[in-house]
Amino acid sequence: MIGVTAGFLLQAINLTVGYGSREIIRDVSLDLKPGQFTVLIGPNGSGKTTLLKALARLLPLRDGVVTLAGRTLGSYSQRELARSLAVLPQIRQTPALKVSTLISQGRYPHHRYFSSFTADDQKAIAEAMATCKVCRFANREMNTLSGGERQRVFLAMLLAQDAELMILDEPTTFLDIAQQLEVLDLLRSLSLQGKTILAVIHDVSLALRYADRILLLDGGCLVDNLPPDELITSGLLEKVYGVNLHRHAADGMVFTNFSVRKDTDA
Amino acid sequence: MKMQREILFICGFSTLMVLLFILSISFGPVDIPLSRIWMILTAQERSGALVQILNQVRLPRSLAAMGVGMALAASGTVLQAVMQNPLAAPSLIGVNSGAALTAMLLLAYFPGRPDLLTPATFLGALFALGLIILITRYAPGGRSTLILAGIAVSALLGAGIDTLRLLHPEAMLGATGFMIGGIAGVTWSTLRFALPWILGGLLAALLVGPLLNVISLGDEVALSLGVPVTPVRTLLLALAAILAGSSVAIAGLLGFVGLIVPHGARLLLGSDHRWLIPGAMLLGGSFVLGCDLVARLIFAPYELPVGILLSFIGGPFFIYLLIHQASGKADAQGDES
User: Fold this and answer.
1) ipTM for the predicted complex
2) Mutation test of the interface with chain A: which of B217, B229, B268, choosing the one with the most A Cβ atoms within 10 A?
3) Rounded to whole angstroms, how far apart are CA atoms A180 and A216?
4) Quick check: B258 pLDDT over 60?
5) B329 touching A, CB under 8 A?
6) I want to staple A3 with a disulfide (CB 3.0 to 4.6 A). Which of A70, A178, B98, B268 is the partner?
7) pLDDT attached to residue B334
């Protein structure tokens, strides 16, 4: 566990990733500290999903190294990796499974193939269900649930996987605002309990409110890796998105908002 | 108990299959009463016409119907999970045609080697699957691409089959029956070489249920849950090829079983493959036993090849599925950014 003692759970050095002849991610280096909730933002087409997939070993690297807990990603077996790193991709089918059956799939990397669920498995599943508040519909079929409820079930499956690092691609997309806040609250409380979380969040205002750190991606390059406050004052957001940023305080919280930038002729 | 519903269904399907098996060995041009069947099976009656009919005609035929039905249904269920496509059925995507082509090749060039028939059909089925996977990898589009690729592959393999039939008319005595699909002429000598493959395949299919559950969540989720997707998918496709190939070795080109039965089983049991696989097997065995029985009795004393009856049922069902799939909403949510 050299990486953890050095203060990082995941470290990426000089990543270059691409499809075919196109390079999507160019020379990106980043690190994630244990227990941190990091949000990856950037304009459409900036390579957010590609970067997440590369970090989760779902895409091959053109160049660079990713280490998880001090070991290179390539040195993990698929099963071993699944015990340390849980991924929720953006595109996925809604399986025609019972909610409890789907959540129990999260235990796949932990239990032996032909054995039934152990007490540890049962405990992890029950805790994940309680944390994500899905116990109420544990016996319903997935396709009878609303979008927000489904998302909570997928999060419960991810949680049952019991990995130190969770990587989520747009977990709040297609949810209404109450459901988005619910998911983000859940992710933040998980990070407070010690999980390391990296997520792509489309809504920049929400990302700034919830994240410990923001990774800002533009055109396949990492612009910066800052806490939200510093990012807001840095002027980088205005530059990358080409908008004006406004801050205002209410109910003891600071909110950010955006408006069209009038002075951009380019 | 929450599992009770599934257990009840499995018990029901098992009972249904056993009942249909008994009816299947009992009814035909000559009916054999149950009491006589019992006496023959327990060797209290050892000679006579009924003994010959039961041992040499009815038993192999009913076993073939049951085995082929179970194998094709299991093959379809595995293919649908691995390809994440409810239309993936061995007869629709050219897998059966591949098996038929290699069967014909064997009959034409190595006659008198029935022991090699099932290995040959397995290789043919695997070859067709490989072609399909290649085409769908490079062809864009959604679920119907698989069907289009299946049409193309079936046409190509069909051309091969037709050429062989022209070049070697002498080796293709049973070819017409083979092309329609039927189990009327099944003998112990055919069964002897194919049944071990079917049994092995069915047993393996029963064991991969939990794996199919994970694989059917999609490649990325499966990888993230620790399944090395590429080698696992290859092994599962080989399993589907063994099941479909050995069915073709026994019954020729029986269509639609691998499409209809998994759907029916899924409606009743849901998509948890730990239950779906045994459920589809039992329903598949029952379905082909039942269809064969009907095909035997409906125009008695004439017999309809069971393949024709299956197409009469399967064709409309396939059309229904196509319409239902087209109007149903897509499962994937969101787009890539």
Assistant:
1) 0.88
2) B217
3) 21
4) yes
5) no
6) A70
7) 32
